[in-house]
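Q: How would the structure tokens look for this protein?
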Amino acid sequence: MIPHNRKLTLSIIIRSILFNCFFYLLITLGVIFWLVPMSFSNSPKPMRNAIGKMIDMIIWMYENMTNIKIEERGIENIPTDKGFIFCSKHMSNMDALVLYRRSPTLTALAKKELFRVPLLNLVFKKMGVIAINRGAREAQKQTPVIAKILRDKKIPMIIFAEGTRTLVGERPPLKSGAYFYQKEADLDIIVVAHNAGVCWPKKSWIKWPGKLIVDYFESMPKNMDKESFMKELEVRILDRSEELML
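A: Here is the predicted structure in token form.
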């Protein structure tokens, strides 16, 4: 998976430290002094524009400071005129940023507890992040309501099928949320495979030079039973991501 011959050099260490300082400083100051004030705007557009500019800066620094180039494939498979689901591999802090840059109206699910966090709750509400109750069954009950929001507003939503960030080589059981959004709400499911964890591993401050490849698949076939759907999801998310890591 990860090249065995890659060596940690002084240049990689320095570049990683500089990028990490820039990344976390921009996120912290950006939320406090940029996004929170914009949360009082009547429209979410100023905040989304600000988030887009922050992400553009982060990705520019990521590519130029750490020598990690981002390549996106299958962009033509992303719907542009309706609500849909991004069902993505999750390996680093970068994968969600790439998806947001590609679809600036992107929303997500967050546990209701997070909406009690000062400042963060203001940003979440203005962005249209959707609050859900804990537990898979509770989340499934909310599927029709959430799907209606996505259809009415014609916006995409991201789901991480693994539930949390994973390390290279890990293959956790995939969660079935995407299946219910297709079966019960007839939303297109766009699977996203990538190798982000090779360059930016989970719980690591090192940013390894290389290429971050993101693959967008055609929408998942309709009318599949749950077992077939989950097997195809595993092929697209896990198998394809592992191929990209070689």
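The mean pLDDT is 92.

The two ends are 5 Å apart (CA to CA).

Upvote if useful.
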